[in-house]
């Protein structure tokens, strides 16, 4: 007997659909970061007040503030980013709220200088379903490892 056997088929299906929508949302966000698609990044977050805590990168209270910094810092041809999110742990708290934890492997190349950065860590996210769409309402990234290389001039 499974832990969800008390739920109807419709409830179980709704849970699966919500979890898949959240996975797709996070993948869309990571891909948009790699593609430097600021509009898609913006659309991954809820409007209005949000909590985006990326540690040394900054803490932001709106998606616009984060997107502005992202555009200034990362949207350059010489900046190549690769975000790989894995091992999602998604917990539905209600029909409209969820939380998730993701492992991140990040690789960055500065093609002008040849410098590289590898970063590992975890995202702790909160999600809300607003008008039928799951969106990120809070996110915090905690790094656990980083390796940087700087070629000799």
Outline the biggest β-sheet: 6 strands, mixed
Task: Assess the beta-strand content as a share of residues.
Answer: over 45%
How many strand segments? 6
Report the CATH topology name.
Nuclear Transport Factor 2, Chain: A
Task: Output the strand order for the largest sheet.
Answer: 2-1-6-5-4-3
Structural class of the secondary structure composition?
alpha+beta
Alpha plus pi helix count:
3
How far do the termini sit from each other?
Answer: 64 Å
The sequence of SSEs as H and E is: HHEEHEEEE
Shape: elongated
Radius of gyration of CA atoms, rounded to a whole number: 17 Å
**Helical amount among residues, as a percent range?**
25-40%
Question: How would you describe this protein?
Answer:
With 153 residues, the protein is α+β, with helices and mostly antiparallel strands. It has a single domain, classed as Nuclear Transport Factor 2, Chain: A, CATH 3.10.450.50. Helix content is 29%, strand content 45%. It is built from 3 helices and 6 strands; from the N terminus they run ααββαββββ. The chain has a 6-stranded mixed sheet with strand order 2-1-6-5-4-3, covered by helices on one side. β3 and β4 form a beta hairpin. The longest helix has 27 residues. It is elongated and about 65 Å long. The mean pLDDT is 95. This is SnoaL-like domain-containing protein. It comes from Ferrimonas pelagia.
